[in-house]
Amino acid sequence: MRNTFLGVVAGTALGAAMGILFAPDKGSKTRKTIIKEAENTKNKIADQASEFADVVAKKVNVKKATLEEQIESIVTDSTHKSDDLIDALEKKLEILKTKNRHFRNSTKSKTAAV
């Protein structure tokens, strides 16, 4: 796209310059021709810049949507892993509480026997 843009600008400028150099017109007519060519070039550049901006905007929107999907996936995976970790820790805590109860009961039994 950029090469096309530069080609159009260079071609237009070169064509205008060559036309002016080899045209045996009056100065006022030559100035009008230069102004007309400058306007045409300006319009072409504006059109191409607008097209380029549209292409870039579309690509940015696609990349943004893809990034948002990836972030959502990461957050969802992290949430599931966090939930799994919490469940595993709660089970371990319950096992430790049970062992602690058994230990206290066995310690009370031994203390009462002495």
Lay out the secondary structure.
Blueprint: H1 2-22, H2 27-113
Helix pairs in contact: 1-2
How does this structure look, described?
The chain is mainly α and 114 residues long. The protein has one domain. The protein has two helices and no strands. The chain has helices at residues 2-22, 27-113. Helix 1 packs antiparallel against helix 2. The longest helix has 87 residues, at 27-113. It is rod-shaped, with a radius of gyration of 39 Å.
Which tags fit this structure?
single chain, 114 residues, mainly alpha, rod-shaped
Q: Report the β-strand fraction as a percent range.
A: under 5%
Number of domains: 1
- On the 0 to 100 scale, the average pLDDT is 84
- Number of discrete helical segments: 2
Shape: rod-shaped
Low-confidence stretches: none
Briefly say what this structure is.
By secondary structure, the protein is an all-alpha fold.
